[in-house]
Specification:
With 193 residues, this protein is mainly beta. The protein has one helix and eleven strands; from the N terminus they run αβββββββββββ.
């Protein structure tokens, strides 16, 4: 009775069989360790183009009065789309009459092709009034400094002397000292004595 060479290899066949397995194992190992090709750079990539520390920007009107000012410990510039990202910014927005609005957030993004600035994360804006401080809190606020306007679709809390109001969404006209709460408005008011 004759057996298949695969079931009972001759002594010289062991070396060949081991060589085939070794080559297959090495090929598999090399293939797994090979880095994957880098993805093509997308048109709207987040590739950093510039970095700045201790940033201070401001704008003034025709008489030289500061209309807005922003300070941040760090800022990053991205080319596509063209924008600046400021970390933990603090800002001042002047109004036509009265004290300015002062604010802070975790991040601000300024798109260079528009006049809007997005402030994101733990946004707080406040203004000192004769009766006390007015404070607005939200997670997101779109500010248009040149128009003295701001808006948010996010939840808003408004606190002032004798009142606390919560809402979803708000629009602000900073020069007109006007605020519109958009939806689900609830709060309480305590008249002064």
């Amino acid at each position: 009775m004759r057996h298949s060479p695969w079931l009972r290899p001759e002594p010289g066949h062991w070396a060949g069989l081991l060589a085939v397995f070794a080559i297959a194992a090495i090929a598999l190992w090399q293939w797994q360790d090979r880095p994957s090709p880098a993805p093509a750079r997308a048109p709207d990539s987040d590739q950093l183009e510039a970095y700045a520390r201790e940033v201070r920007l401001q704008a003034s009107d025709e008489n030289g009065a500061v209309t807005w000012q922003v300070e941040a410990p760090t800022a990053r510039y991205f080319e596509r789309p063209a924008r600046w990202a400021l970390d933990t910014p603090r800002w001042v927005l002047a109004t036509a009459d009265g004290p300015p609005w002062r604010g802070r957030s975790r991040l601000a993004r300024s798109m260079l092709d528009t006049d809007r600035v997005e402030v994101i994360g733990d946004v707080i804006m406040q203004r000192m009034q004769p009766a006390g401080v007015i404070r607005l809190e939200t997670a997101y606020l779109e500010v248009r400094p040149g128009r003295s306007q701001a808006r948010t679709p996010a939840a808003v809390s408004l606190h002032g002397p004798g009142y606390d109001v919560d809402a979803i969404g708000a629009r602000l006209w900073l020069d007109e000292e006007r605020l519109e709460l958009l939806d689900d408005v609830a709060g309480h008011y305590q008249p002064a004595r």
